[in-house]
Task: inverse folding
């Protein structure tokens, strides 16, 4: 469900003043999109759903302090990203990723060959994104699924903006390599 | 932010994992259950504090009417107040101050620390109950990190 900014602001104001029906409108409008972003970052669909539920609960508690003059989805995605990171911290093996483990590649790699079927390519790319290290996956999800700016991603993940750029660049380089390995 | 390259375009159109079944319904249910649980916890805390408060205040409340003698002094107090008022602002303020400190001394003498704790518990229970009834006003942005 696509919601215009003015309608979104109106629903948010009603929800912030305790209107439970308005808050349920927000859940109806944003939970599927939020799930898609979270699922890209989380290890399983069950965990992704738990995070979506917890995100909306936290938003409900924080809504009276929410300033409704900005888009709501980046705010939601920021809370969800923090919850996903908390999950990573619980799993120590995923807590710290070593940037140096990612291969250094030139940024001007040529695009995949044109003869590759688009559907196959996208499927392969989605699988490759799944294989990326957690923070790279998070940056990809927030950038491309949530459509967030580098500034918003940096704020959501509590990272310097240049680190976000580095993660994104290296994630893309790695994806490029994986695609090239798959299709020559 | 640079121009989107081929990989950017591919990533933007990446197939997204779809939620199974009625995800919004499940999220709504989850939030409703949490909200109900929080209300119950608050009501329980409010009742427990009120109970404690009443229990601690009851002995002091039982002795207070016997220990204090307000009825006989009401006309005398009113007369003093009028006299102080006629003496000007300074007299009124002095009288008000001495009345307040006198009342404080009387209360401290007649109500023990247990009753004070009881009164605090009662006040807290009222605040919790009011917090449950009155929604917060939106728009007061919290500084720092989100939620």
Result:
């Amino acid at each position: 469900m696509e919601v215009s900014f003015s309608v979104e602001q109106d629903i948010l104001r009603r929800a912030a003043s305790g209107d439970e029906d308005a808050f349920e409108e927000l859940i109806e409008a944003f939970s599927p999109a939020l799930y898609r972003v979270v699922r890209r970052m989380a290890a399983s669909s069950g965990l992704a759903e738990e995070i979506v539920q917890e995100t909306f609960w936290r938003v409900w508690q924080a809504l009276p302090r929410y300033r409704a003059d900005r888009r709501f989805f980046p705010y939601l995605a920021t809370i969800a990203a923090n919850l996903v990171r908390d999950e990573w911290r619980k799993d120590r093996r995923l807590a710290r990723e070593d940037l140096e483990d990612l291969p250094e590649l030139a940024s001007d790699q040529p695009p995949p060959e044109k003869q590759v079927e688009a559907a196959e390519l996208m499927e392969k790319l989605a699988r490759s994104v799944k294989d990326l290290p957690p923070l790279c996956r998070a940056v990809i999800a927030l950038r491309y699924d949530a459509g967030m700016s580098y500034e918003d991603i940096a704020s959501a993940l509590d990272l310097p903006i240049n680190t976000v750029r580095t993660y994104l660049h290296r994630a893309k380089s790695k994806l490029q390599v994986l695609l090239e390995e798959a299709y020559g | 932010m640079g121009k989107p390259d081929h990989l950017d375009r591919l990533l933007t159109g990446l197939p997204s994992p779809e939620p199974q079944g009625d995800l919004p319904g499940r999220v709504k249910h989850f939030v409703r259950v949490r909200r109900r649980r929080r209300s119950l916890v608050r009501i329980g805390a409010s009742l427990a504090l009120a109970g404690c408060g009443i229990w601690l205040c009851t002995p002091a409340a039982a002795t207070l009417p016997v220990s204090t003698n307000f009825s006989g002094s009401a006309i005398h107090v009113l007369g003093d107040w009028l006299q102080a008022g006629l003496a000007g602002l300074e007299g009124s303020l002095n009288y008000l101050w001495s009345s307040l400190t006198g009342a404080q001394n009387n209360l401290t003498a007649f109500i023990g620390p247990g009753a004070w704790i009881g009164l605090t518990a009662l006040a807290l229970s009222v605040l919790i109950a009011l917090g449950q009834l009155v929604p917060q006003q939106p728009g007061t942005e919290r500084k720092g990190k989100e939620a």
Remarks:
- Residues 93-112 of chain A have pLDDT under 50 and may be disordered.
- The longest helix of chain A spans residues 161-183.
